[in-house]
Design brief:
The protein is of the alpha+beta class. It is built from two helices and eight strands; from the N terminus they run H-E-E-E-E-E-E-E-E-H. It is globular and about 45 Å long.
């Protein structure tokens, strides 16, 4: 009897240790932090330092079909040249990036009720 109890405790301890290792905190996006061009946030995209925001494509991404470069949410015939290659995002950009991140688990009841958030902020979709 004692032997089976000790085995059970070892198994439970191993399961809880495995569950905790998957709970690594994800870095937060903040207006106080600085980010370089093409800093990637899953769900938000690539940071464009001169424009202080995240976009779906990397900074100065070249599209061979239309022969244009993508920067700051627009296309241009030439790559965007700027001395700014590191900056802090705007508070609005941070708020949006945090909202659309796909690397942060979103728990609770919010998703089970049609996307409504019933938290303290009063936001309802």
């Amino acid at each position: 009897m004692k032997r089976s109890q000790s085995i059970r405790l070892v198994l439970l301890g191993g399961l809880s240790a495995g569950a905790l290792t998957g709970c690594q905190p994800k870095p937060t996006v903040s207006a106080e932090n600085v980010y370089t061009n093409n800093y990637f946030v899953p769900g938000a995209g690539y940071y464009h330092a001169p424009f202080r925001n995240w976009y779906s494509l990397p900074y100065n991404h070249f599209d061979p079909q239309n022969k244009q470069y993508f920067f700051g949410g627009q296309w241009g015939a030439q790559p965007f040249e700027s001395i700014t290659n590191i900056s802090s995002p705007t508070p609005e950009a941070v708020q949006l990036a945090q909202a659309v991140r796909t690397d942060v688990p979103r728990g609770g009841f919010g998703r089970s009720y049609g996307g409504h958030y019933w938290g303290g902020s009063g936001f309802h979709s």
